[in-house]
Specification:
Helices cover 39% and strands 17% of the residues. The chain is an alpha+beta fold. Bound molecules: zinc ion (ZN) (2 copies).
């Protein structure tokens, strides 16, 4: 059993939420695919195992997780919303060649925010772009 999945279902139980088998399968998919999938990708990814799955079920499951602070909504590009089951602070790196969004560890506490001392900060996002190692190796092979 995926430890992240186990943790999440326990958290949901603590909130008094009992998920249907279908919704649990969506949660499981998110725990296994930490690549920040879109609803479309979750749908396509689960279609072979659950042909009767509807996008509404996916949206409802996501909303439920989000409302309980168990999921992060990523809007790295304007036209697509991605979902991240890793809620602890971390940075994102998007490869401009293959489009994969990687997680990386970052300690955001030492980042100075003097200009915001009177503000309430709800979330901190760090977003880098570039070329990932896999793509760099491929470029070198071709040359
Ligand atoms: Zn890449
Ligand atoms: Zn992430």
């Amino acid at each position: 059993m995926n430890p992240r999945y186990e943790h999440l279902t326990q958290e949901l139980q603590k909130c008094g939420i009992r998920l249907s088998k279908r919704r649990l399968q969506v949660v499981e998919f998110l725990c296994k695919n930490l690549c920040h999938p879109t609803v479309e990708q979750i749908y396509t990814g689960l279609q072979t195992t659950i042909p009767s799955l509807s996008k509404t079920t996916i949206y409802n499951t996501i909303k439920l997780l989000e409302n309980n602070g168990l999921l992060r909504v990523l809007k790295i590009e304007d036209n697509e919303t991605r979902y991240d089951i890793v809620t602890a602070n971390h940075g994102h790196f998007k490869c401009q060649k293959c489009g994969v969004i990687y997680n990386f560890e970052i300690d955001l506490d030492p980042v100075p925010t003097q200009g915001l001392s009177q503000f309430h900060i709800a979330s901190k996002d760090v977003y880098f772009q570039g070329t990932c190692l896999k793509c760099l190796i491929n470029i070198n092979k071709k040359e």
